[in-house]
Structures are given as C-alpha cells and as structure tokens.
C-alpha cells in the first residue's frame, strides 16, 4: 500500500490567477524586456553540437566546453551589472523580469562550481571565442547589484510563494561556493547588504513540495557564512515525510513520482549535506544510495524513460549518480556513473539540446508542447545541475580519469519492480531500450484524446506574445494518464 502523506491546502498563487493589475505589470515588464533584449547568440551552436557528437572527446573536455559556451553567451545577454539576463525563448507565467533573474540565478552556480575547483588566485575562463571571461568579477557584480535596493538590478522585496524564493537557493549556493573568492573579500557593509536580502527568504511560505528545500538551502548558507541559525527543522522534517522508500520522494502529498527526485530533491539534499555535513548525513546518503540502486538501470546510450514535468531539465538526469560516487556508495561504480552522465549529455546535445547559448525549451530542440507554464527562457539551465556536480566533485573522485564501464542495458536484459512507486522496470538488451511501466493510474478520467500532447492555440500564442505571460496547455503526461514510458521517448513526438 502506498504511503499516506497528510496534505495541506494549496494556496492561491497570484501569477496563476492574474487580475487586471497583474496583467498591466506583466505587459510593462514585457516592454522593458523588449527594450533590453539582444540578438540570439548563436555563434557557437554548431561548434558545441559537433563537440558533443565526437565520441572520442574526453568528459572533461566536454564539460569545460559547455562551461565556456554558457559563460560566453551569458556575458552577451546580461544587463545591469550581471544582475539580470534576458534570454530568447517562451515566457513563463511570471513577469519578464523574474524570467531575467532566472537567467542569472540558474547560470551562476555553473560558473561558481567551475571557480570552486580553480587553484589560481585570479582564474580566467576562456570563451569558445578565445577571449577571457572574468568569472570572479561577474559573480561579485551580480551579487552586489542584485542585493542593492538602490541599484537598477535589485532583485526586489520578496513575498510568500514568490518564484524568487526558488531562485534564491541557487544564488545562495553561488555565494557559498565562491566564499573564498568573493565573500571573504567583501567589506562588512557589503556582506550585510547581501545577507539582508537573503534573510528575507527563511520566514516566507512556500508551496508544500520540493520548494521547502529552497528556503532550507538559503538557511544553511546563511548559517555557514554568518553563524546565525535560520534552519527550520520542521521544513526539513516535512521533506522527509515525502519519502516513500526505495530512494523515492513524492513531490508533495498529492504530487507525482518523477524526475524532480533527481534535479530537485537529491540535488538540494546533496548541497545541504556539503554545506553542513553533520546535519543528517545518514538519511541523505542512504536515501541517495537506495535511489541509485534502481535508478541506474534507467540509462541507455540513447536516452532514458522521461516522465513527469520539466522535461527540459533532461541534461541533469545523472545528478544522483554523481552524488553517489562522491559518497563512495556501493550502489554504482564510478565508471558506470561516468558513462551514464557522458552519454546523456552527448545524446541530447548532439541532437540539438543547446541553442543560442542555453539548453532548449524541449527535449531536443525547442518544443512548445513540452514547456510548462512556470518555465521561462532560462528555466532550462537547471539542465546544468549534473554538470555542476561533475565540476565540483570530479577532481577529487577521479571522475575525469576513470574508465567508462557499461550501463546495465549494455550488459543484458533485466526486469524488476520499484514497489514504493508502483513501477515495473524492463530492459531489453537487443534493442537497448528501457521501459518504466507504472502499475497504478494517476487518474481514471482519461480518453485517447485526453492523453495526447496538446498544442497551444493561436489566440493564446498571440496573447502570450503581447502580455509576456505563458498561456500554454498543461502536458504533464503522468497527470494525463500515461502509464508507460520508454527510453526511445516516442510518447513525446
């Protein structure tokens, strides 16, 4: 029997139910976006695609090329001292300004993890154009501008259920990763300015799902940097209530079992454990190992069975595999984790998953049917979360030098169940295909037509362009009643 988790009422989120005043704000921010947006930076799209199509390229070369590709484009799109970045793409249901904050918050952790591993006092990243990129200067400027109420790039006063709560976690992680390069060189007034902005976050209300981890991440960083304890144990305990066994979390009391386990729960829990290794290491590391023991079977050299929301984060599928390697878990070998991570990047990127300096809003190239309404032009940078872990732990674990070892699907057939989530996992060696079959329905209210991917109507597309607010159909196939997912991903096309 599935674990029963006590539910809390879902709050009314203003951006999900906009009134006239909200639409006016959306329209105004959209005009500002149009004024500040720059041409699409496509100078190295072919280069990065060819790089990842090269089977002989080393993993370290691929990762360094991806960092250079990302950083160079970020410099192009950034405005107001790197506090915002207006990337091209479909808007979210937030304002265009919030989308532009995502263009910073979701890129800086990649620059920060690169910086964390450098030995030089003044490290210089080189773009694919051969020009130096001042990573320290970029991150320092962004943090100071974004937290300064008198600066045009100020990230603003936050409120309950604010999307910026989500973004604050990545910004706080950036601050923690770069503390030896930036935080320790700021004067007391600058440090106070930055912590004053972040201290808005811990008391705020969030959605009752993986969002609890965002305020916890900020709290752990503040505690580490300032000694002031903002950590709310009740929020952490609530996250543990979502744990159902076999390494899996439910994303809220009535939420899905999906890849948010990978790029939401385990990514955040890994960083919490890095920031404060004494907090709850036994649970975090044990849950990670139990998850990886089954999840490693999902990977093939050509895709994996994607299910749930936010399919555009697909490049981060290997997050828990890399974390398990760092924990020296016996659930996976370093060689198999390396192969899973590398082939996952190569498969998607060589088939068009990077464009104009960012991961596309789709599975391969842009696909409006697969872009959730909460996703904006830069949301897909969560796709770099596995890259962030690789950069952070690769040097100390021997990831770069390790010999690749075969994935489970490259060894033979397999057939097993994940009882905690009512899933049946089947691997077919001959076709190199992995299928995940859910043995219970999420919804009984379904027809052949209701299960299909819907396209956005022309009137909604026009209104989306004018208002700058997403008006796309909801295409989470789990919630539509699809129960069978294959690594060949035919259900997306």
TrEMBL record:
InterPro entries: DUF2264_N, UCP014753
Pfam families: DUF2264 (PF10022)
Top-level taxonomic group: Bacteria
Domain DUF2264: 63-407
Protein name (database record): DUF2264 domain-containing protein
Species of provenance: Photobacterium jeanii
Lineage of the species this protein comes from: Bacteria, Pseudomonadati, Pseudomonadota, Gammaproteobacteria, Vibrionales
